[in-house]
Amino acid sequence: MHGFEPYFPIDNKIIPTNIPYDIKKSLIELNKLRDKIPNLIKTAQNAQKIQHDKKHRLIKFQPGDSVLILFPFNEVGKSQKLAPRYKGPFKIIDKINDLNYKVELTLNNKTTNDIIHVRRMKPYINR
């Protein structure tokens, strides 16, 4: 009536035994790409590492050094535009590893020893 055989829901349930050539070719191409992808990812990661290492410098502190610490601004009702981002100076008590240090914090007349990541610290320069 319409010039072709209509599709019925049962036709989707039956798996065809013959796969057209273009689908086989596409599957072969996809499998080749899957084999190449891990190598491409590693080369991209190495290139990114080289770019990162060009400007990255690891800052090391010693126990007893004075540092300023970045505190995220989260006080409600106060403008953060002109507020200082770093507070301090605070003393480093101990080095946990290359990235974390135990620091003696004195805020609001309370002294605590917290572990602070090196990204949140910068050296305090006495003027």
From TrEMBL:
InterPro entries: SH3_Tf2-1 (IPR056924). Pfam families: SH3_Tf2-1. Residues 76-124 form the Tf2-1-like SH3-like domain. This is Tf2-1-like SH3-like domain-containing protein. The lineage of its organism: Eukaryota, Metazoa, Ecdysozoa, Arthropoda, Hexapoda.
